Amino acid sequence: MNDVFITKAFTYLPNEPVSNDEMETYLGYINGAPSKAKSIILRNNKITTRYYALDKEGNPTHTNAQIAAKAVEGLFDEKFKKEDMELLSVGTSSPDQIQPSHASMVHGELDMNKSLAINTASGLCNSGMNALNYGFLSVKAGVHKNAVCVGSERMSAWMTADKFNHEAENLILLEERPIIAFKREFLRWMLSDGAGAFLLEGQPRENEVSLKIEFIDFYSYAHEIEACMYAGTEKQEDGSLKSWADYPSDEWLKQSIFALKQDTKVLDKYILVKGAESLRSSFDKHNLDPDTVDHVLAHISSGYFKEGLKDEFAKVGLDFPWEKWFYNLSEVGNIGAGSIFIALEQLMNSGKLKKGEKVLLCVPESGRFAYSCALLTVC
């Protein structure tokens, strides 16, 4: 088996940063009224700016595939040209279409004159890590000499007011308050657009920071816990999900069936506890000493979880001091599958990493509670 290194990373964030006060200028006002929940959610998630692939009239400026392609193009240089790429592996939770696959669409945006091996990882936040794992294993096994792995999102298009206005109008007809359910509105004030890309190769680059991938582990708790984050479906009283395909088409708009929703009660109960449990399993599996970890990059959807995550890790013997943690959530927002790519790119190009240091990546996915972690060594 070959060693595998992240030899270059690049981030693409569309347009200019959007402040908290500007959000509804881009996303629009549901039922023409400012949100009453917005200030509460923003106070808890501690996000101050994010990025939207929208203009101020709510018109799209980029597709998800275009955002991902921009990140990929940032990897090309005199050492790695576009025609050198052998595998493109992309993960997202917000593809532009149900079919074709997201990786196919990204490949199409790259203006290449060659065929590629491609892979699309679906899901939520862990889709980016699954895309990375596919590239890692392909290079490690010698199937490909290199792999470009991407995590990308364009959630803003899912969160514009027009996607919810029909539901608000229906509530008025039913003589109910036109307030969209919290499980739908909650995510409007947290999600951001962008993409991060990694180049994986079998050798580190001389005189540049490279990161050796030691392992990537995955854990799912779907056998224990019901779904927490979902779209294209609606949760039933017993916790099961009813597919969009089983609803009459006129119900799709009335109930915002395709909106991304989150069951915050289930989220609070499990997201941190299972994250600590899974990471403890990896440290035991690889016989790792937490003191050997120099940098901790944990994707969190909201600043609300920052203190709690550190505490839960400490409860299972993984008490990383604050100076080892690296976060950029407040500046870029929650970019789902792209978040861990973008955070690592920022750290990788910060000048702070020293040869021999260990970098830990932790990614939770609240869809039905799946987790991943990876250990990297600075070369």
TrEMBL record:
<feature type="domain" description="Beta-ketoacyl-[acyl-carrier-protein] synthase III C-terminal">
    <location>
        <begin position="284"/>
        <end position="364"/>
    </location>
</feature>
<protein>
    <submittedName>
        <fullName>3-oxoacyl-[acyl-carrier-protein] synthase-3</fullName>
        <ecNumber>2.3.1.180</ecNumber>
    </submittedName>
</protein>
<feature type="domain" description="Thiolase N-terminal">
    <location>
        <begin position="68"/>
        <end position="164"/>
    </location>
</feature>
<dbReference type="InterPro" id="IPR013747">
    <property type="entry name" value="ACP_syn_III_C"/>
</dbReference>
<dbReference type="Pfam" id="PF00108">
    <property type="entry name" value="Thiolase_N"/>
</dbReference>
<dbReference type="GO" id="GO:0033818">
    <property type="term" value="F:beta-ketoacyl-acyl-carrier-protein synthase III activity"/>
</dbReference>
<keyword id="KW-0012">Acyltransferase</keyword>
<dbReference type="Pfam" id="PF08541">
    <property type="entry name" value="ACP_syn_III_C"/>
</dbReference>
<dbReference type="InterPro" id="IPR016039">
    <property type="entry name" value="Thiolase-like"/>
</dbReference>
<keyword id="KW-0808">Transferase</keyword>
<dbReference type="InterPro" id="IPR020616">
    <property type="entry name" value="Thiolase_N"/>
</dbReference>
